[in-house]
Records
---
Amino acid sequence: MARIYLCLAHMSGKEQQFIQEAFDTNWVVPLGPNVNGFEQDLRTFCGGERPVVALCSGTAAVHLALIACGVQAGDEVCVQSFTFCASSHPVTYLGATPVFIDSEPDSWNMDPALLEQAIIERKQKTGRYPKAIIPVALYGMPYRIEEILAIGRKYNIPVIEDAAEGFGSRYKGQVLGTFGQYGVLSFNGNKMITTSGGGALICPDETARERIMWYATQAREAYPYYQHEAIGYNYRLSNICAGIGRGQMTIVDEHIRHHQHIADLYRKAFDGSRGVLFHDNPNADYDSNFWLSTVTVSPDIHIAGEEHAYEQAIQGAVGGAAGVVHQAATLRTDCQPNDNIEALRIVMDKAGIEARPLWKPMHKQPVYRNNPAYVNGISEQLFATGLCLPSGPMVSDEDAKYIIDTLYAAIR
Ligand SMILES: *Cc1c(COP(=O)(O)O)cnc(C)c1O
């Protein structure tokens, strides 16, 4: 049986036609018909109202959204702690400080009460309000967007939605990324759709779109020569990569339905009755794309081999696309998945199934040890007990059954 990966890209077959066209017409540059076409496809997919700028990564999209919101050195930005580092790192690129906000247990995303507490306390401590709020659609699950937007309005702080994992997820029928000031999308190799690497920023209006475009193309002024009055970035998407994106957009609905179908199978199997619980939409307002299906495992559940968890250093990346080049200093850290989770990951790995721990909260990451954090223990507890399971278009019904059987068979 072939190895089952967490989330593998799946091509429609149309990608190569768009790429061939780019070569035939000599548009092998970071602009052109594929970039324009991809942006139009994205705009239509997101409801048609907001312009979209295609960029070379989701990280670049976060970076430019922050700049557009006026974030500068010395500022603070409220970022969901339970996330991938691309939500918060661009804040530090600007010399600003991420203030980490813990999660609430239903969506696993930014806790609105903690957010408001943080905003009030930061104002008391620093004399200034944070400059932006970044909630994250973790594993595709929508955040408590209405409450977060209301808080943003109350304190006049823009909301940047990190919908990198939530492309096509909806809240009350509306696509994520179209609620806040800006919406971030990612098309990295393992996301809902891929351009090999790429991202996009959903903008509130045409003026904002032009400004983002300007920053993404080295902030060049309208002279016949290169005149620069601000610092810009080389962040546009290549016309070749955009060709992949156009091909992917022909099957995006199918992809999302398949992710949701695999989630259905896990939902039925992991109902909590045997200590394993599927992370589901909190209620009918939420419509996750289930980019990755996740479960939590009770600490009382014992897994074969758990007494040997963390005895060996990791060889290569766990599920990572790039591979780890740095040796770990220790086998354990002060914040890690429970031994039964690590044992389960190893059992699955040996059975040819790639499973991965949840994101380690940013407020527990050594690089952010001195950052302000407003915590309630939720994300740490989820990180200790959670596991991501193979999702995506390459996972068949048969694979899902094998994954479910393998997981249950590992319980002692
Ligand atoms: C993938 C991802 C991003 C953007 O990542 P890129 O790899 O730069 O496209 C941002 N935020 C989250 C939460 C992500 O998972």
---
Amino acid sequence: MARNLHFLFLILLNTSLFITIHSHDNNSALTACLHSSGVKNFTVSSTLAYSRLLNFSIRNLRFAGAGVPKPTALILPCSVEDLRNSILCLRAASLAIRVRSGGHSYEGLSYTANNGVPFAIVDLMTLNRVRVDSGSLFAWAESGASLGEIYYAVAASNRTLAFPAGSCATVGSGGHIAGGGFGLLSRKYGVAADNVVDAILVDSAGRVLNRDSMGEDVFWAIRGGGGGSWGVVYSWQLRLVPVPERVTVCTRTRSGSTRSVAELVHRWQYVAPNLPEEFYLSVSVAGSGDGNVSASFTGFFLASRKAAVSSLSRRFPELVLAESSCREVSWIESVVQFAGLDSVSELTSHESSSPEFFKAKSDYVRIPIDMAGMITTLDYLSRKQEAYLILDPYGGAMARVKSDQIPFPHRAGNLYGIQYIVYWTVEEDTARDKHVAWLREFYEYMSRHVTKNPRAAFVNYLDLDLGTVEWGRGGEGPTDAVSKARVYGERYFLGNYGRLVKAKNAIDKENVFNNPQSIPPLNK
Ligand SMILES: Cc1cc2nc3c(=O)[nH]c(=O)nc-3n(C[C@H](O)[C@H](O)[C@H](O)COP(=O)(O)OP(=O)(O)OC[C@H]3O[C@@H](n4cnc5c(N)ncnc54)[C@H](O)[C@@H]3O)c2cc1C
Ligand SMILES: *[C@@H]1O[C@H](CO)[C@@H](O)[C@H](O)[C@H]1NC(C)=O
Ligand SMILES: *[C@@H]1O[C@H](CO)[C@@H](O)[C@H](O)[C@H]1NC(C)=O
Ligand SMILES: *[C@@H]1O[C@H](CO)[C@@H](O)[C@H](O)[C@H]1NC(C)=O
Ligand SMILES: *[C@@H]1O[C@H](CO)[C@@H](O)[C@H](O)[C@H]1NC(C)=O
Ligand SMILES: *[C@@H]1O[C@H](CO)[C@@H](O)[C@H](O)[C@H]1NC(C)=O
């Protein structure tokens, strides 16, 4: 009996794949399909709630304006069944699918589509439960959960457990972990994706797969191979990591002439990547527009304040770090500080402060930039007011993990990553063009100081300048898509690109899940 039911279920599953909606009005056909499969929470473009919901998770205003293509519908699945039914209905309606978790994609890929392809957004914001099994060192997080919600739940279960991932609380775990996920604990415990032990993936056929049933190539690909290529990750099983009761956080800002700041940053390159892995010291450098620069050092140490300050003073006396620049706090209090929030309870809010217009690029450095090069670099920056660099130290656990362990490949030999950001607050075409042109020129200058052949980049700092592939509405692309995509694929994933194509072929041969920088299947 049970076996027959199972058989019947399989037939239903299969036939549902071949439902096509025959209607000139695909909106109402989509609505009918969603209703009949029990999906209740969605809104179509004619409704009032639509614009508010669409805007809610747009973190880069470059992709909010009237000139940006808008989705036909926004669907908010409330369960994994809703999620698979949403995908099946969108396929039946011949709509391209965009999956949005936190909406922090630097290029807006979770809520836009190119070439006039009609599309809908599956927004995971209400799939945000995090379950930490007490007494176990693991958690299950639905992929619409923000990093702040994960941190909140983990700390609530045990003050000496943590999860290593990025510092902005509203970043979604769906896109973040899919791209690796670097943060303050990464020198100790690797990127977020290094700490994923299982996942539930809904594929383009609506199958609900776990690690065993998706297979090791696909499970490998979803941990760092970038979001939007494989299917929809419904949830992640995370390995939690131990932290001491008290950690130390320090901030120290040094402003002045480019030469004086360049000396400090030049020295930082030799210190930060070689600190004990319990020590994280990053630096962010901002231009002033008037020829000076300002460097903000952020320290996060799995050690007491006394031990941290005395060790840092010995290894980096030039920084002149006083105990008064540091505080001893619990791990979750450090998270609140680095997220720029005031209290632990704010960690669970998806509301972002003030989104702005921005464009970013990234690089990796393997050989320290010499003093003359550092001065020229900061001179460049000093002439621009609306720009900054973030230098993230690698080394420690980042260097211990092999480059092909997961798709995120930037491991041993990388001293630090660079992120370049320009931002503006009022949209004018001339302003945008001016800022973006400045960034591209600066990036061009930096080529002499960073990795080459290929010039590596971090997929979480997505940059469409690295190349794109245009897909049609059925996911069809140029015959040389695999070699076109290699241009950005090898910059983000180095030698792992080929295995990603193989994994794509195994899970989404029809290329249902695509975007201008997705991984193509073979012969697509
Ligand atoms: C303010 C800010 C701070 C940041 N800080 C860090 C940091 O400290 N460290 C770091 O590594 N990165 C950082 N990032 C980059 C961030 O990790 C990436 O932009 C990430 O892709 C955002 O994930 P999201 O879910 O919020 O974005 P979304 O825009 O929702 O998604 C990004 C991509 O993933 C896909 N996707 C989303 N959810 C799923 C899912 N469940 N299954 C499959 N695909 C999915 C989307 O379709 C899209 O292609 C930061 C970004 C911002 C804007
Ligand atoms: C959404 O954002 C756009 C662009 O910034 C704006 O024009 C529109 O009014 C916003 N919609 C709502 C409901 O706030
Ligand atoms: C339905 O969507 C709204 C946002 O429009 C959200 O606040 C609500 O929690 C969702 N309901 C469920 C059951 O997920
Ligand atoms: C509606 O969907 C059908 C297939 O289901 C497709 O052929 C048609 O082009 C779509 N119409 C519009 C206006 O998008
Ligand atoms: C809390 O986490 C620590 C690891 O930091 C672990 O040793 C301890 O057993 C956990 N306590 C409980 C009650 O689970
Ligand atoms: C630039 O820095 C120098 C050295 O700290 C300082 O004397 C000068 O006033 C600064 N110039 C500006 C415009 O802030």
